Request: fold
Amino acid sequence: MGKRGVLLMNIGTPDKPTVESVRTYLREFLLDPDVIDLPAPLRHILVRGIILRTRPKKIAPRYKSIWMDEGSPLRVYTQRMATSLQANLDGVLCEVGMRYGNPSIRSGLEKLRDAGVDELLLAPLFPHHAQATTVSALKNAYKQLGEMKWAPVISELNHFPADPAFIDPLAESIKPHLKDGAHLLFSYHGLPVSHVKRADSSGKHCQKVDNCCTLDVEANSSCYAHHCMLTTLSVVGALGLEESRWSISYQSRLGPAKWLEPSTTNTVEKLATQGHEKIVIASPAFLADGLETLEELDIEIREHFIEHGGKELSVVNCLNDDPHWIEGLGKLVMEAFRNHLEIDSVS
Reply:
């Protein structure tokens, strides 16, 4: 067995909470065809001509409101995850690579190569498969490996929406918040419907079959919305929640495309008007806290809920470097290494 290394890949973050830094980050992020899948000319017109002219000025103050002494929360918590995971896995080196921004995927790979790693696990930190996250991160990693002319033995960490290694610490983190009959809302990052439909291998299942996201069939084996539903049902099962005690929604929309429904904004408004005074929001699509959880949910969505009659809203922290989660992540990592060895031995 060679020297093993893991590249933990997250989505990314600006280097500073400034307009220019946010603009640089958004330019790289939104010009990725796996994120906005318009034809290149239209994508550039939308991003450069519209979004980058206005959005950085709006978002920079939001980043500033959550910035930590050590830097961007997403970067800080992802690095803590890597540090804890390495301490938990004897002899396995762990580095962080952000798909957009720093530390880059290239820099993480170079550190692992220079440390003598010859068995590499590419580990997208996304429990649910999506073109804009998992696929984009893996594409970039392989591109960088090619440019580096580095050819270690490579494994990939697959999606894990219902794996007990993920579900058990997630349910455990949510349980203390469910007091006094609070309603649990699972808020996942949104995706354009076009991305979800593209994952339908049959072309006959997605949004064409009743309750399509709840069905476990080959056609939706790589479907983000199905994976989100798998996580939700696994957690409510572990917590023993009745159907009336929980809801599911999608946040963080951008642009004019049709996105997954219902939106988190509309959902908390509906819950408030229905008389739910207390709600708890969990965001299982994110393994490390960042802008979407610390600001969008914990500030903007809370204010919206209270404006419409709600009394109390709490947001469950992401798993970050929670010891139970680090143990679970370690199991997922070692299983991915073992599965690769088993495939090699069979072939």
